[in-house]
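Work Package 4 report. The design task specified in the project plan requires that, given a folded chain encoded as structure tokens, an amino acid be chosen for each position. We show below one input record used in the internal validation round.
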């Protein structure tokens, strides 16, 4: 498995987690913390202020996603096998492609489609 493939799998996983964290949040500030009694300072499962935790996890996952995308791009660029042969001028055909256009021929047996009525 290439390095780019590993980064691609990690990018997909982080993007999926980011979508989940964003879907749990409420755009009006309630979110997960309001469903447990409405108190933002209430301790729920050992996490104080659930809204702050979701906000920090969103920013963390977004930062990780951007970093993975940049790293995957660096590994893709550093791979010499992906360079274009056309841009380097190697193995390019020197003959021009044929520019003749095939003529549209009408079959000789074409008849009028109207009935003789």
């Amino acid at each position: 498995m290439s390095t780019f493939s590993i980064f691609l799998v990690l990018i997909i996983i982080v993007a999926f987690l980011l979508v989940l964290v964003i879907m749990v949040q409420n755009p009006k500030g309630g979110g997960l913390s309001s469903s447990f009694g409405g108190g933002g300072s209430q301790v729920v499962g050992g996490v104080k202020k659930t809204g702050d935790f979701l906000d920090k996890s969103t920013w963390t996952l977004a930062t990780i996603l951007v970093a993975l995308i940049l790293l995957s791009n660096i590994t893709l660029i550093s791979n010499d096998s992906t360079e274009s042969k056309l841009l380097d001028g190697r193995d390019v055909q020197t003959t021009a492609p044929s520019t003749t256009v095939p003529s549209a021929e009408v079959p000789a047996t074409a008849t009028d489609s109207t009935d003789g009525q």
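Residues 50-78 form the longest helix (29 residues). Validation will be extended to a larger panel in the next phase.
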